[in-house]
Amino acid sequence: MKKIDKFFGTILGNRKKEVSEVQIDREVVEEIIQIAEKSYPLEFSAILQGKIEDNILKIEGLIFLPGAASEDGAVMEIFMMPMLSDDMGSVHSHPGYSAMPSTADLQFFAKRGLFHIIIAQPYDLNSIRAYDSFGEPMDYTIV
């Protein structure tokens, strides 16, 4: 991680929430795959709900917010987020075969959450990629 990233992470409070491991509930992963398939050719987006226990980020659910979707992007009305939602990041689909974050994705990641998922075609376990708030790839375990 670059020094400037660490600096801004500290200012924004992201450094206080560093985790050593990410675990995603299997049902959440299955739901992400199903929704991505059904949404195609449009993107879908949701908030990842979870908690941090013993330095492990546990993703346990999805929060769906009002918004709009197209073949080029998805927008969530973040101001509609419930106050006590335990949001830990985001998930969205790409209608193509690349799960690399766009510039808009990276800007969103930097503003919101610790952990972000992008799923691309063919919408299966192998097409899921995860990133931290700086857009760096992250590992995760399905439990």
From TrEMBL:
GO molecular function: metal ion binding; metallopeptidase activity
Sequence ranges assigned to domain JAB in this UniProt record: 26-129
InterPro entries associated with the record: JAB_dom_prok
Keywords: Hydrolase, Metal-binding, Metalloprotease, Protease, Zinc
Keyword Ligase: no
GO biological process, one term: proteolysis
Gene3D superfamilies in UniProt: Cytidine Deaminase, domain 2
Highest taxon above the source species: Archaea
Keyword Metal-binding on entry: yes
Protein known as: Mov34/MPN/PAD-1 family protein
